[in-house]
Structures are given as C-alpha cells and as structure tokens.
Here is the input.
Amino acid sequence: MPHESRGAGKFMILPEFEEALPDEARAQVAEVKADGNLSRHEKHDKIMTILDGLSEEDRARLPAPPLPPWVHHLDDGDRERFEAIHKDSSLGFRERRDKEKEFLESLPEEVREKMRRARSQSRGRMRGCWKRHQEQNQ
Here is the structure.
C-alpha cells in the first residue's frame, strides 16, 4: 500500500497519534490497515469506528490534532469557538467532525468563501502543519 509508512491517505492516522492509542486499539487499527480486502473507504470507516469506541479517558490522552491552516481566517471569537470544539475530548471523532461542520456552516457566506479559498490552497500541507504544531508544543 503506497505511503503507508508516512501515514498518508484518507484512512490513515498520523504515527504520533497511532502510538498514543491504547494497545488494543492500536492492534485493531494495524489489523484494519493490513487487510488488503478492504477498500480505502472501508478502512477509513473501520478505523473511525475503532476511534469512536475509545473511552473519554483514552481520547483525552491522545495528542490534540493541529488546527487546519484555514481556521486562521476566522476572527478571534469564532476561532476560539472552533478550537473548543476541535479539542473537546468528550466528543467522538465523527461527532466532533459533525459539530465542526455545523459550526462552519453557521458562519456568514463571505467568511466561508474566504476559508474555502484558503482551504483549497492548503490541501496536502497538513503533515507539515502537524510537525509545526508538535514543535510549538514542546
């Protein structure tokens, strides 16, 4: 499977994140990643199910994911509200994604358009964003 060692691909998770998983969840994720009979989307769905099944305690121990670069186009109040949702360990992964999407859809159209442009320019740069995030928090 291409790029597996780099953690790239929609269904893959960053190595730093995977290492922080509890042993049982890490083994389940490795099993899903190694299953050649599953499509990319099936692997993503199974991994998300595993992550959603983590306890709130386990989710709280995981490193906070970096903020997407386009979030910096929000004003301070909206950015803080987005960050609060993004870092809320009481939410499951799908639930967090849904709440983030709901929040972003509630923003005025001109803000969403500005973010869409920034988002399209930032595609493929999240790995670098994660490295900067790790360096800033050390």
Observations:
- Confidence is low (pLDDT under 50) at residues 1-11.
- Residues 69-136 form one domain.
